[in-house]
Amino acid sequence: MAPVRNARVLFKDHPQDIGYPEPGQTTVYDDTQTIDPDNVQLHGGFLIKTLVLSIEPYVLSRMRPSFPLPYTIGAPITSFGVCIVVRTETDKVKVGDHLYGDLAFEEYTIRPSLDGLVVLDNKHNLPWSVFIGTAGMPGQTAYSGWKEFAHPKKDDIAFVTTGGGPVGSLVIQLAKAEGLKVISSAGSDDKVAFMKEIGADVAFNYKTTNMREVLAKEGPIDIFWDLVGGETLEAALDHANVGARFIECGMISGYFNGGAPVKNLWQLVVRDITMRGFVVTRTFPKYSEEFYATIPEKIAKGEIKCNEDVTNGLDKTDEVLLGVLKGKNKGKAVIRVADE
Amino acid sequence: MAPVRNARVLFKDHPQDIGYPEPGQTTVYDDTQTIDPDNVQLHGGFLIKTLVLSIEPYVLSRMRPSFPLPYTIGAPITSFGVCIVVRTETDKVKVGDHLYGDLAFEEYTIRPSLDGLVVLDNKHNLPWSVFIGTAGMPGQTAYSGWKEFAHPKKDDIAFVTTGGGPVGSLVIQLAKAEGLKVISSAGSDDKVAFMKEIGADVAFNYKTTNMREVLAKEGPIDIFWDLVGGETLEAALDHANVGARFIECGMISGYFNGGAPVKNLWQLVVRDITMRGFVVTRTFPKYSEEFYATIPEKIAKGEIKCNEDVTNGLDKTDEVLLGVLKGKNKGKAVIRVADE
């Protein structure tokens, strides 16, 4: 086999100040490199071909030097993805194995070892993209955060933000499985329709609906799943029940303005609220076994629904990221890099 | 006995906007009323003579109509206090009993029942003022909040705000009893000296010392006892350890500006922080028995130290409150209304 293109998405520069990344400035698509899959030296490792990559707000975080695991300027950005092994010099993997983990945004990568990767056992024959969505890191986040911190009780009311995304949509379905009333918000009517489809009792578009009126009518809330922060968090605090649990999973409203200030934290005191932030990598391991034993099967049976928005081609990376940050994606944003 | 003066502190008007109360405007001292202790009709209840009353930030909260239990305009303000029964028509109390509870700011009150009051058993012969300080609501707050939410572990570092007050100073002593390193802040050098006396490893005056530098050098912190909020809370978030517990007991920095905004709540997520607000009345009952079985005795033996700032006379109420809100008191602020 002759050398083939090995296109990459390189990290060029930090986003200006605290703003949105700028296509072509923050990252750059580079298709000048080639690779010879049959002959490239593997030094005892293995060669993978990237199939799907996940685009999520977390990618922006890693573009900032002050956040954990910042990207390296000049190197490909990385995110969760699924790849296939095309050649190997180690018996730790076989050709044809599908691997999941933090992958570089490039068509081919040589990996020295399985560090940071797991071999996927796709016994329910799910599309590989599901393993970066509801059966991947976002699903792990929803599942472990809910199991560890929600403490649902009969007649509780849950409010789930970004309910049209892969984290929020699984949270809605977990809350409904417990018999709770679920209020959920998202930024488009498409997402509102999806939230209703998966069982949300009250679903609204926060861009066109007054959130405080919804919460005043449908609350007070006992569980708040927060991916937004800022004014949304303030509204939730003002409409929380005594003893409410606030699960702080992300604060996208503060990503572009140095942190969206919250003025009414006093409500934490008055209402006996527990606010718990978490990072999935620390919370999930305890739940890994039960997650993989149940969630993929439920997805295969249609008992848990996913919502994807797939874009073809690494060259679309920057615009897909910008779309996600502005809430324009219709479901879990996936870059399909290659078919098998 | 002829009629005697029954001076009162009446709630006149809400503080302007969200500002400080204004002496003479927010409350007014009225000494025009008299009472005849021997002959006033008790209607089956009992007559109490007020001995000591507690002044704390909580009094300001109750001056605002939006807070729980707001005061009634034209009626005396109330706060925790200790009184003595001087006449009774019920056998629920005896003349000479000392009672603790939410008392009106007046020299004499007729109470119909023991509702909201408890009979004090002062077997260690403590000054009555202690029962509105370290052995009263502030101490209950410190004790139950610490026991319920601190989860101290070996080698943890605690950061205690307002460590010179009755809540913070007991928290310092509870943390030291667990063997923790304690950092504590207060607003005067007198209070810093007291915090050192009771065992704080690092004590500083936040008005003259850069808090972030202290935390950078002495942290990261595992337990944060917060009575301040705002910029202090922001500094604590930026210097917290992974898995830290933030106990939100009050947010005095936000009382005069509509709530001090906090911009970096994102740190809750990154650092797996639990932030727990609480109101003493809901948390304390579980600990009431062990509190009264241990704390008064330790105070009597000098194993737990208190710090009081006693002012004589109901007519000083408004200036003492203003002093507390501005941090000018030297210890637990007490109004001594009468001797027995």
TrEMBL record, chains A, B:
GO molecular function per UniProt: oxidoreductase activity, acting on the CH-CH group of donors, NAD or NADP as acceptor
The keyword Oxidoreductase is annotated on this UniProt entry: yes
Keywords: Oxidoreductase
Domain of life of the organism encoding this protein: Eukaryota
Residue intervals of the Oxidoreductase N-terminal domain: 43-111
InterPro entries hit by this protein: ADH-like_C (IPR013149), ADH_N_2 (IPR041694), GroES-like_sf (IPR011032), MDR_fam (IPR045010), NAD(P)-bd_dom_sf (IPR036291)
Bilayer-crossing regions: none
Domain Alcohol dehydrogenase-like C-terminal: 166-289
Name of the protein: Enoyl reductase (ER) domain-containing protein
